[in-house]
Amino acid sequence: MDDLLADFLTETHEGLVALDVALLRLEKSPQDKPTLSEIFRLVHTIKGTCGFLGLSRLERVAHAAENILGLYRDGAMNVTPGGVTLVLGALDRIKDIVGALERGGTEPAGDDAELISKLDDLANGQAGEAADALPGGYQAETDTKARSVSVPTAQSAPAPPRPARLETSAEPAAEELVAGHTPPQSIRVSVDVLEDLMMLVSELVLTRNQLMQLSRARSDGAYSVPLQRLSHITFDLQDGVMKTRMQPIGNAWAKMPRLVRDLSLELGKKIDLEMRGADTELDRQVLELIKDPLTHMVRNSGDHGLEGPEDRRRAGKSETGRIMLNAFHEGGHILIEISDDGRGLSTERIRQKAISQGLASEAEVSGMSDGEVHRFIFRAGFSTAAAVTAVSGRGVGMDVVKTNVERIGGTIDVTSTEGRGTGFTIKIPLTLAIVSALIVEVAGERFAIPQIGVLELVRVGGGSSTRVERIKDAPVLRLRDRLLPLVSLGRVLGLDEEGAAPIREGVDVGFVVVTQVGANVFGIIVDRLFDTEEIVVKPVAPILRHIGMFSGNTILGDGSVIMILDPNGIARVTGVVADGASPRTEDSKVASGVRSGETTALLLFRAGDETPKAVPLGLIARLDDIPVEQIENSGGMPVVQYRGQLMPLLSMSGGFARGEGERTRQTVLVFSEGDRSLGIMVDAILDVVDEALSVQAGQGRPGFLGSAVVAGKVTEVIDTAWWLRQGGGDWFRPAISAPMARRLLLVEDSVFFRELVVPALAADGYEVVAVEGPAQALRLRERGETFDAIVSDIEMPEIDGYAFAREVRGGGPWQDLPMIALTGRVEPAAVARGRAAGFTDYIGKYDREALLASLSQCFAVPVTA
User: Fold this and answer.
1) CA 304 to mean position of chain CA atoms
2) Does 824 or 116 have the greater pLDDT score?
3) Count of domains observed in the chain
4) DSSP 399-448
5) Looking at the structure, do residues 16 and 116 belong to the same domain, yes or no?
6) CA separation for the pair 668, 681 (Å, rounded)
7) 324 in Cβ contact with 277 (< 8 Å)
8) Within 10 Å of residue 369's Cβ, how many Cβ atoms?
């Protein structure tokens, strides 16, 4: 293939992509003269070059399309959807011919008579009305700006290397000439040349790392200055080459408007496509790999997600559905959001499908949250479509999307509200060539962990206040009111001795790499941490691909070859993050894990008798196994020295006595809030389970909210507030029952008090949704959630309770709800300010009796703002 034909093919590919976008823009704005001129010029250029190169078939098709565009440009014919469809059909035929020409080097044989006849009929005014009789509707909005494409990417196959050619604008803008600015310039460079440059830069980075390692080992100051200079030059060169590979994500979206338009016509739906952040740039290699997943997800949104016009009218929505694409940078990666305002995922339908396909038992599915159920759509072969269509429904797609995204080191999450829409969030790295990584060691072997997924590093053991704890045989880490599951890297990779316990509690020294996979967080236990390095990613060897925990390998500065760990693979292999785990995006995080009627983590234990006891795991600060000799007596109550203070201990088995033959260690549940702590002594820890807590009120037995069926057994749920009151202080008071079941919204930034209040109110018949601040509460209002009353803290970090109350009272569906302030500030001035802001009542924290009495009174008396 000669250089002239290669240049023609590249220019034609670019022109056809631009034509797709411009034609859809013209369909929306038929009187847009500049767009008409641009379209006519592009088609005319293609036709003229075809004639020069002797490509007669291409020339005939392009000429027939040019005739119609000429009539549009001259005003002799109105732009219609039917006409645009015919011109788009001509462009599709041109793409087919160009693709075959590129593969074979010669123009393929074929008959275009029927297509040309239709185009000629329309140009002669014989098919106007018939061509306009098309279903559906389409609109598109985008912030994509016209740009000079410096590095072309062939649509079918890359063009062969050819001499570079300087391109300048033939007609610079008038304002540029007046201001004296030079028009933008670009040259065409083969992608192969850029790949070779990237490879050379990668080798340069490796050599730089080796020299830096030698310099540090020899402590020779004579080399430090030139090596530092070499490091800066290497970084600048790497950055420059990376920029030549970076392309706007809008290039991957270029076909989306056409795709959505075709879907609109095929499905008889009205669809509005909105694209934001199209100028966000990422590596060309990553861009190529995400094109197909994005295309599939947009088709899914149009087919499965959006309802037809009549269904949308019945649901109180506008007839036109909306699909939104949004991309933005976040740290060293890019987030891509694909969302729609359609019917949302049918949670019950997915549950039934999962059971019928044997993916989970009925008992397992019934205990899952909606988010966990929704993630079944990523399983291979899973589909809820009633019938197979030309667009989707075969059960292949979302699992492939997930696999392809994870193959490039990314993650994908889904959130959905039935009747309101579905959203997917894809998180991918900016580049796959050179990444920043943390070097760790376990059992004498070094590994690299990409920093994109590392949240923080925690030192455990060796005198550190942070320790690895155990729930049954599973290691866990308490990190700022959150219990993280842990994975021993040495044990997973088979490097630890059989039966070795990683970082024995309070004995050994080690580190935990807190890692995020999607919305889930867990810790990886390692022996030693080194520095972070920029590493060159090499593909993982075929012999190791079946392991699934490595994403590649690299060469360190000392010449060592080490493996690059894949946190996604580690999570899958160990099961520490289940495939059906619920994503915790901003909208799904509304209850911080505390929503009555949904699953919550419960700690099961035994105390006093054989009946299992349960307490919400989020209330527990620590699980301690205390030597009996450390338990002392103060004022007739057992105590233990805990973090510089005396912590009172309560026994659930009727008392505590030290004597001969007694146990040598005592299991203690530690509850903490601020500087206050209390321990409850129990006999044994049984398990941690996730279940919906449905408490049947007890018969007035002190210390218990009632009984519930947990893990298939009748279990007593303790009244934590009652037990903590026995420890002294004025935290709590006795409970009374609520007179009726109502839906309450609790706004409280303290995890401890959210975990405390929700089960207590739920046991009195209330349905409670808890959020960690006013921002999340107001998002619930935007989503249309309804409540009977709001209970809110006053002192909160971002928006205080006063501002929140004023916002609620300012208008909207919540403006007349009872609002109760539950706060530690009960002085007259604070009460007066709260009532002025719109609070119905003001209750001291935590006066449960007063709170329940206030709720009863609010529901009995109509409230006006």
Assistant:
1) 21
2) 116
3) 6
4) HHHHHHHHHTT-EEEEEEETTTEEEEEEEEES-SSEEEEEEEEETTEEEE
5) yes
6) 5
7) no
8) 20
Q: Which domain holds residue 676?
A: 599-726
Say yes or no: 288 and 414 in one domain: yes
CA angle, residues 641, 644, 647, in degrees to nearest 5: 40
Give the integer Cα–Cα distance in Å for 503 and 488. Answer: 9
Distance CA 404, CA 478 (A): 34
- For 34-38, the CB contacts below 8 A with 24+ separation are 36/69, 36/72, 36/73, 36/79, 37/73
* 597 — pLDDT class (breaks 50, 70, 90): low
Say how far apart CA 397 and CA 405 lie, in whole Å: 12
- Dist CA 382 CA 357 (whole Å): 8
The structure tokens listed for 731 are 């935290």
CA atoms within 13 A on the CB side of 654: 2
Are 239 and 105 in contact by the 8 Å Cβ rule? The answer is: no
Q: 628 and 558 in one domain?
A: no
What is residue 156's predicted lDDT score, i.e. its pLDDT? 35
In whole angstroms, how far apart are CA 98 and each of 56, 62, 129, 156, 239?
12, 12, 31, 9, 35
Residues 115, 201, single domain; the answer is no
Q: Which is nearest to 412 in space by CA: 507, 513, 293, 544? A: 293
Residue 466 domain flag = no
Q: Are residues 774 and 673 in the same domain?
A: no
H and E: helices and strands count for the chain? 25, 38
Residue 162 lies in a domain: no
CB atoms under 10 Å from CB of 234, counted, come to 18
Domain C-terminal end among 668, 699, 726: 726
What CATH number corresponds to the domain at position 553? 2.30.30.40
| 545 and 610 together in one domain | no
Which H or E run includes 153?
A: none
Asked if the structure places residue 594 within a domain, the reply is no
Instruction: Assess whether 763 and 834 both reside in one domain.
Output: yes
Nearest to 490 by CA among 502, 507, 476, 474: 502
Token digits of residue 154: 């062939």
What's the CA angle centered on 784, arms 778 and 789, to 5 degrees?
A: 65
Q: DSSP readout, 61-93?
A: HHHHHHHHHHHHHHTSS---HHHHHHHHHHHHH
Query: In sequence order, what are the residues at sequence separation of 6 or more whose Cβ sits closer than 8 angstroms to the Cβ of residue 211?
Result: 223, 227, 230, 557
Residue found under tokens 């026995």:
726
Read off the pLDDT of residues 427-451 as tens digits, 9 standing for 90 and up: 877 666 677 788 899 888 899 888 7
pTM: 0.48
Q: What phi and psi values does residue 103 have, to the nearest 5 degrees?
A: -75, -40
Rounded distance, CA 114 to CA 109, Å? 15
Closest by CA to 622, choosing from 676, 671, 558, 678, is: 671
Band the pLDDT of 371: cuts 50, 70, 90: confident
Q: What residues does 487 pair with on adjacent strands?
A: 524
318 close to 406: Cβ distance less than 8 angstroms: no
**Amino acid 745: pLDDT:** 92
Alpha carbon distances (Å) from 617 to 346, 520, 752: 30, 18, 10
Q: Do residues 286 and 229 share a domain?
A: no
Structure tokens belonging to residue 369: 């949250």
Q: DSSP string covering 616-685, please?
A: EGGG-SEEEEEEGGG-EEETTEEEEEETTEEEEEEETTS-----TT--SEEEEEEEEETTEEEEEEESEE
Residue 27 lies in a domain: yes
